[in-house]
Amino acid sequence: MTEGITTVTIPILLLGCGGVGRELLHHIVASRHLHSKRGLVLRVVGVCDSRSLLLVDDVPTIGFDDAFLTEICRIKSSSSSLSALLDFGHCQLFKDSEATTKILDVAGFLGRTTGLSVVDCTASTETVGILKETCDLGCCIVLANKKPLTCGIDDYDKLISNFRRIRFESTVGAGLPVIVSVTRVLASGDPIYRIIGSLSGTLGYVMGEVDDGKSFSKVVLAAKSLGYTEPDPRDDLSGMDVARKALILARLLGWRINMDDIQVESLYSNKHGPNSMSTEDFLRTGLPSLDRDVQERVSAASSRGKVLRYVCVIEGSRCQVGLQELTKDSPLGRLRGSDNVVEIYSRCYKDSPLVIQGAGAGNDTTAAGKNLNINAGLFMDLSSAAKHEHHAGSRIELTDAGANSCILW
């Protein structure tokens, strides 16, 4: 520990042991020395997957050591159960509703004493209830999962009723400071009237390569081989992930809208959808059949001196996601590779927008690189959460948290 720096210890309970969750654990282990210099200690007290909760024996004082965290990653990367770790000792396993109750017990105790960050690295819509309850118990919520922020507006209102305890930087723009930038502009009293951005590193890469004359299908397959796309590229090409990010930004601006209010352009038709053909058939025959239409649109834009980019636009009463023709010399028009770019227009940034740009689908050619970028946002949020816990003057205490869900992640 660097002399003269106050140490802040923040307990962490991780929901989700998929790729993002495991990469977060790896990053925590690899960054101990850097965190020590900053006076930050991240103490993982529990890890939860879709079936069970693994908890340290003595929650108030210890966390899993680095060797154990590494073993968790190894076990889960092989799709094994967390129960396989019981042989190592110094931990407890809880399943189903018992696990949910235990999470709330831990949240209730640490939330009013040392503080606790509940980190959601799942891809589930079912975490909203437990996130809300742990937040009410005084915990900080850190989200890599976009879905709790894109649920129905009533559930969203309940979740963000303790807005200062929620961190979600990594839900939009991976590791880029998009959320904090929007929040700071608004907090300064500067109204934002337009946001336009390329929020999918995958689609940014695809459209940039197609603009250079390559066929759409070959570029998508190349992106898949680089680890940029989901196993089924239609998950990216549908535009729904971009729409979720657009909804998060729109709600941050105060818009009272739901997913159904967003105009979303999919890059494939229903006849090429998952209900009509398998992933293998789509890659073999469906994807190449899209080449002509995409190339015609690219050529039409080029004839007008513009380029096609897949963007979200939030302006006036419109929240729209899809292909847009943009000038070649704009930040979005110059976009190449898998970078994300966001332009924010406000009263102060009227003629020259605030532009945020950086790696989107990964700064190396693997899916792990993508997860590392997401975790840059998570670490920004965890540092912020640590400051919140350190400076908090009081905590909410509830005597009966209840357990309204027994679904784990």
From TrEMBL:
Its EC number is 1.1.1.3. It catalyses: L-homoserine + NADP(+) = L-aspartate 4-semialdehyde + NADPH + H(+). GO terms for biological process: methionine biosynthetic process; threonine biosynthetic process. One of its GO terms (molecular function) is homoserine dehydrogenase activity. Residues 177-369 form the Homoserine dehydrogenase catalytic domain. Keywords: Amino-acid biosynthesis, Methionine biosynthesis, NADP, Oxidoreductase, Threonine biosynthesis. It is an enzyme of class 1 (oxidoreductase). Belongs to the homoserine dehydrogenase family. This is Homoserine dehydrogenase.
